[in-house]
Amino acid sequence: MKSLNKYSLPTILERLKNPPVEIFLDKKEDIIRINENDQETLWNCLLTNVETVINTALYPDRGSQNGKQSEKNNSEKHVKEVCDKQDEDFAQEFLFTLIQLAHTVIDVPEPTVPDSMTSLVTVMVELLSCQNVFLEVKSHIVKLCSLWLKKKLQLEESMLVDTFKYVVKQSLLDGALKADVLSVWTFRAAVKIVIESKDYFKVMKDDLLDVPVSKNFLKCKEGCNFVGFMMTINVQFTLEIHDVIKKYLPVYKAEEYAPIYYYAWNSSNFEMKTVIEKECIQFFMLKSLTLPRQNLNMIIAGQNALRILSQFHQQKHFPHVQKMLSTLYEPLLWRYLTSPNNTHRCNATEVLFDAYPLERPGKGRQINDVYLNQQHDAITKLLTDNCHIVRIIAIRQVCKVLSSYWEAIPAETIHRWMKTICILANDFSSFFVRRSVFKGLPVLLTNPHATLCLEQILPRFQKNFHDPNEQVRSAFVNMLLAVKAAKGRLKFWHIVPLEELVGRLEVENEVVGIKLVDLLFESFFNSQFDEATVILRLVHLVALNSSASLKFFYFSKKRLPLQQAVKMMLDIITFVRGYVKAKLDAAKVGGKKDQQAQQSPVSKKRKLFSEQDNSTSFNESIDGEDTVTETVMTDGSSIATTSTFSLLENTEEPPKEMPLDNPEISKGFLEIAGVLWHIHLKDIEKPENKEIRNNIFDVFEPCLNSFLQFFKSHTGLYSAVLGLCSFMPPSRLKYVSTVESSCVSQLKKMQWDNNSDKMLMFLVPLCMWGRGADVIELAREWLKETFKKANVANGRRSSSCRRKVVNFKEATGPKPRLGLRLIDSILMIPRCKNKVFGQHSEELVQLWLYMGTVKELIDNRLGRGECFQDPDLCDTFLEECFDLYLTLMISLDNVIHEDQPLNSVHEFKVIVEWASETLLPHIPLDLGDVSNEHCDEESPPMLPFVVNILNIVIKYATCLMPLGRVDLQLVRSLAILIKCSLSKGSRMFFVHSGCVFTSYLIDYIKGYDKGDQLHLFRRVVLTLMKMVLDALSEHHMEQTSMKKYVQDFSKVKCTMNEVLMFSQRHSAKLAQNVASMFVVSVVNIIRTAMRVEAFEEPVGKINCLPFLAAQIVSLFVLRVPMAKLFCSGLEKHFATYTKKDATYFIAALNLYYVLCHSSTKIPPESLHNILSSCRDCYKAELIRQKSEEGSSEIIETLLSNDGKKLIGGIQEKLLGSQASLSSAAVQSLLEELNKCL
User: Where is the sequence biased in composition, kind Polar residues (predicted)?
Assistant: First the structure.
């Protein structure tokens, strides 16, 4: 649209020359002045000109027809000539100017409107339907009509409806403004005219029904009010709007409809209110009470229904609203609160608390007290409901009710509720219940009366702070944070002592740990503390728990920014440096006194710390000193805050005991500095923080050497100092060469089974100082010496390899397993891995290439048929070496070697091919004897050597799949290798690795189109899954015996579920085939168990089935669609497989018996179909026996004593307890089975 130039009326009138402009124009001021006598003349002339302009410029066809009939006068002819000569925008300019003039005329306190002006406005409204009129002109026409209504001027019905029709259409457009919706609200009086007129309503009905779901209306108050206004006019139209909104509720969160329904109900007459109550409000009540739930929450439709009801609940302080709610809830709410359906009770609980308290206005206080007690009794029962979700909702809502109505609820009721909540805090049937207790109690802190009660109750929950569930602990800490934020008499350390909070931090994870740091931070540190106070509080923290103090600072990055962290690091180092200096000075003074007294040479340097822990509390160490003062901690305890640094001043006789005399505190200080450096390392290394970095180096550099010397006799302290040294560049360490050599020497002296922390103490600094190549070469030399033994024993020479010589001599022989641990540790620690890969990737490649020799050793070992005699070449070493070889193969992917990137996919193809040729022929033909001695959680069972090697190949080749480093050829080769492994007699050894591969394969094939997905799924995934099931069902194994072969059965079960879900997503036929495969497996497992254990009675519960069968059945019976698939598979099984063997029939019948008694998710018709198939199978067997005149194994088995017991038991249970099948139907289906009894 072109913008209007907004010509002045005099200019336009001069062009038209009608009426004479001199009448209205004051040439001195160039404005129009119109007196009342001249208004009629002006508007008559303008009306004539407007009609001519419209007919000529906007409706040229209509204008030409009128022109042919007659020319009224010369003036009209002149106007037409002017319009023809002007540009196409002249008419728009003319109309816009007249609208502005009309707006000016009526925008006065008491406007006078001539009839000709009213006619002109009517003509303007007609232009709203003209497409040739600019939108800006139409917008001002709407504003003129709006002002017309505001001034209560006469407006014809057609004008009102036409304007309303236009503004409604504009407001429904995408991108409509709030002003468009406000215009609709302004012309709302037209709604009644439109609805009551058939012609108008037929035209506008669709637009009006689009309004309730238009975001333009729902996002502003006036728009919502308009929707509500439409619902107050006509009953039928109100119901149609309600139907439109009902379709919208299940899809979107619709908070906007709540005020709409309330406005409609509150603004309606009695008749319309009755309709809205019965048809709308009760509909939402019923839906909020009956719709299904998603775990702890209502589905979206239920939430929307409750939101709409909540709008009425919030207005229940009005008597007419309260009366309506009580009346409508009476037949529904109390029925569903006692419903046997858990979902209904959950929904009713939410509705009751949202509406609480319900009253009966006008019934008197006595009746209302009884009604309120009825609600209180219902709430008490809900708190102890057998459904944990009901209890969860009740706990949360009771706390909200108490926070709002504490003074109004009887004390006995409050006591009963709080006592129940205290009991539920220890409800170990569901951690959600315990969590809800600690999520609800903080709400009470907003009520002063409730806070007094909490002061007595919350300290009783101290033990719940150590709840085994993380979410419960997190909720508990959130409660403590709420107590802290309340700043009342109740303090968080009154609930859990400070020592216990700090102690918990030692074993807590990051999620809860960060919250604990937020809780405790101000108890130890504050920006207003000076350095001495910070140090002493740090002493107190470390003394409480040194390990927890490290966690405290590890989780403190958000609370302790870089500048404060660096300051604390420097304060710690300065404090430790002062302590070391004081001790060294004291040692020198003491040495001189001893020399003078004894006149003997200086004795050896005394040992600063004994190996034993002589730790004492900091309060004890400074007790009795004159300079000590007390500072009260946030928790009320007091610690010494004397001038800490004064303890380290140069005095002739320094204090006999200082805080750092305790080795644990000294170690804690140094480790805290290292932790702070570690968590802020990336920020410190940024170029813009160069000054900060250099400041740290300048403070640390002169200290570390003296620290190394002073703390050398204490392993923990020495390790902490080395950790700090690892952050320093070698150029800033004066004696780094000595330290480096010492670290290498210490690594050489270690044994492979030494403590990891001790090994890392020397390994990490070496890697960070750029000495990773030396560590790699050390490991390589050890491996070479070990491999050489095997080569010599087999008459081979080791291949020569160029290497860097390490400047030390072997004293105790090679330590190959230690070398493997060193390389593995480098790969496991991110700092070390990044440093070594950045500087020494070529050395790692050379090590990996050399470690390829392990394949030859494995060949030799398998050829020998027994272990190597040398203990360094034991099977465990070969397995660890091969494991590290494949780990390096993955880690070195894309590393440049000889100008080419290494390709792990290609290398693994070679490995898989080698495994197929070398390892598969040596797989045991049976399971053999796997001892139970090693079958526990800490040590896995001893499996055959070739099995372990093959599983290592499968494990690492599979690891490439989630990394996206495989191609179809490698996947196919690996699948063939696993199939071959699962086809051997010892296939149980490969069940776990096969399931892991199958799980990743399902994710892998999702990258292909649907056709290829189904092809790969059927050809590979289902084949592998069937082989796994066959392997599992081949032997009768319970959970303990299965652990010998499958350490983590949860992964096997997870893979089974993924196979089911994939098949269900693609097609019903595929899902049915997969379910049938699982049914066959379950029947086989039961059949195998029956051979081992004679079942005198049918198994009635899922958990009484053999372990594997129970696990598979549990995948199906918890969901209705899957339960139907499983029943269909069992029905098919009776029709086919049971004819093979009588034991198949008995096993399938036993499985059917379990399904009847163990799941409510199975539809009755599915159970009916299975029993029909069972009957048909038996009848067919009878017919076959008669025709062949021979015996039937199935019938003979059923006629045996065991068979009679089983069939009799099944018959009795089916007739006696299967409520979903009628007794007559069951009796009819069992008649054929009774014949054999």
Answer: 611-620
